[in-house]
Amino acid sequence: MNPNPVVWFEIYVNDMTRAVTFYESVFFTQLTPLPTPVGDDGAAAGMRMMAFPMQVTAAGAAGALVKMDGAAPGGGGTLVYLRCDDCAVELARVEAAGGKIHRGKFPIGEYGHCALIVDTEGNLVGLHSMR
Fold it and tell me: Are 102 and 124 in contact (CB under 8 A)?
């Protein structure tokens, strides 16, 4: 396995418009639509995807918000950490964007700092920065 094994992530949502607004507001970024995947039977997979900015040939994982039949948002599963220059900056935008702060910025030794937030869909999401 490569040193950074994560290659893709999906954050499941119930309300795509609300979720896109939250992530674009907190991270000052623009999400873009991805084509709907087609199943083996040629039918659309019952999903909608909005991707975070990505560079296909760069290191690190890319990902998207996903509204998909049978995949509900919520905490208690895999935790995704999104990179920030200083997670305190994004943390300060969370509540105004409709989310909640689960745990404020805290140090993790030589690996920088983290914070935990809950998005508008109920997903627990990590923030990570070296500052």
Answer: yes
DSSP 2-38: -SS---EEEEE-S-HHHHHHHHHHHHT---EEEPPPB
Residue 49 CA neighbour count, 13 Å, CB half: 17
In 10 A of CB 92, how many CB atoms?
13
Single pTM value for the model: 0.85
* CB-based contacts of 87, cutoff 8 Å, min separation 6: 105, 113, 114, 115, 127, 128, 129
Three-class DSSP category at 90 = helix
Query: What is the chain's length?
Result: 131
Q: Please give the average pLDDT of every successive group of 10 residues along the chain, which has 131 residues.
A: 74 96 97 80 75 86 88 83 95 98 93 94 94 92
Rounded to 5 degrees, φ, ψ at 38 are -110, 135
